[in-house]
Structures are given as C-alpha cells and as structure tokens.
Amino acid sequence: MQYGLSLPPFGDFADPHMLIDAARRAEAAGWDGFFIWDHMFFDPSFHPNLDPWVGLAGVATATTRIRIGTMITPLARRRPWKLARETVTLDRLSNGRLILGVGLGDPVQWDFGFFHEETNPKIRAKKLDEELAILTGLWRGEPFSFHGEQYQIEEVWFRPTPLQAPRIPIWVGGNWANKPPMRRAARWDGFFPISFEGPMTPDDCRTALKYIGEHRTSDQPIDLILSPTLPDDPAQARDLLHQYAEAGLTWCVAPIDPWALGADWEAQWDSDYTKKMLDWIDRGPVKI
C-alpha cells in the first residue's frame, strides 16, 4: 500500500509558496503522493484559490520522489488539447511522477453553473469519456483525429510524448456506489470512490473491485484509492489498514483539509487550520 494526501489549494495554500512548502514537507515526512483539488470555486465563502497546474509545476520542481497530481480534475471544464499540453509538460517536469485524477466535478454550481457552462451530468459524462479518448490519443505522439458527439479534431500530431510509458496513469473518481464511474474506471488505471453515506468498508472495497473486474478488458492491475477514516490510536489504525489492504486497497490518501478537522463547510478559511494541516503532514502517514 502507498500513502498519499489530498490538499485543497485554498485559503493560505492559494499562495504557491505555501503549497510548495507543504509538498516539500510531505516528501520529507515519508508520504508517497501529494494530490491537490481542482476547482474554480468550492463553496459560498469563495476561498482564495490557486490554479492547480501552475501550482503543481512549482511542486514538481521542489520535490524529487513523491507522486503528484489532481484529485480530481473535472474534464468537462477543460479543453482536452490544452490539458494534453499541460499534463505532458508536467509529467516531463516531474520526471514521470504525474497521476491524473478525473471525474465529473462537484459541486456543479461552483465549477460550472456560475459560468453558464454545462451542468447536465449526462452530457458532462459524455464529454469526460470523449476527452479521455482525446487525451490518450494525443499523448501517443502520432497523427490523431477525433470526431465525436462533443468534440471534433482534425488530424494533428502532438509532441513530445509523456515521459511515463505507456502513458500517464489515469484515476477515475466517482460517487460510491454508482455504477457508471466504476465501469469508466475499469477502462483506466484506478478508482477513487467518494462516499457521502459514511466511510466505505473493506467489504465495500471488495464489492467495487469485483464489479470493476467484471467490466475490465485489460489484464493490468488497477489501483483502488480511498480516504478512510482512521482511528486516532495508531495500533487500531494499522489494524484497519491491514483489513483494507487485504480487501485490495493500494493507495490510502489522507484528506488533509479544514473540513476533515471539523471546520464548517461555509466558513471562511481560518489560519489555525493551516497550522493543524501542516502538523498533520509533518507527522507523516500511519503505515502498515
């Protein structure tokens, strides 16, 4: 099992220097992954926010080992050819450490509605699938064209290619236990379920992997990524992590944010939470 953290680049972490410092500390403390949220806005308080791709470029140059990426990028808000350039550049800048997390995006009003962009989930899902086909097609560095329902591309040739082979890993996020995100994840490299009905159990993990396996055509292993709620007692936390590992969990990603620490979702950012988040990073992950 590998251990990452998920950090919102809001409030004090909208300062790129603060974000870079957090990433350096995460690498020094033994975390394996440093992932940031990708939102235009997130809640009614309109926190200061940082562009994730510019922020991750700074993180890439300040670290050497830790995996980096977004958790998650709502692809329907992105032009796929622009994202292809950004991801390849970042993959090369980081010496092949990028993981791309994708999904529909939520809350929809804050990422789409305010800008009069598409809020219909079915249409955004169609865009998501077409954009994944476009991204991976452009990443191959060969002549590529695309004629879909949402996007049209005349034949082009994108170079350079990503440093990672066969390509940059793609993790698919989605609400548990909706079936479409799991079927989508079956075509890619990882599944990051998000549960609003309480934490997923190890048995839930087994159920998800079984369903994904029934729809998977690749013989390559797939990552299961989760942000489990762990007990404060280290021994109890390790025992629970063992249960998740036996159920197939490959990445434990800690949600290091004010709301995991008890903040009100609609409150302004309090710098006291910044200190608590950095302390959490410095402690490092509980490992088995």
Can you tell me about this structure?
Helix 6 links the parallel strand 7 and strand 8. The strands form two sheets. The chain has an eight-stranded parallel barrel with strand order 1-2-3-4-7-8-9-10, surrounded by four helices. By secondary structure, the protein is an alpha/beta fold. It has nine helices and ten strands. It has a single domain, classed as Luciferase-like domain (TIM Barrel, Alpha-Beta Barrel), CATH 3.20.20.30.
Describe the structure concisely.
Helices cover 38% and strands 18% of the residues. The protein is an alpha/beta fold.
Low-pLDDT residue spans = none
Shape: globular
Strand residue content = 15-25%
CATH third-tier fold name: TIM Barrel
Helix content: 25-40%
Cα-atom Rg, whole angstroms? 18 Å
Q: What is the overall pLDDT average?
A: 95
Number of helices: 9
Main attributes of the structure:
eight-stranded parallel barrel; 288 residues; globular; 18% strand; alpha/beta; 9 helices; TIM Barrel
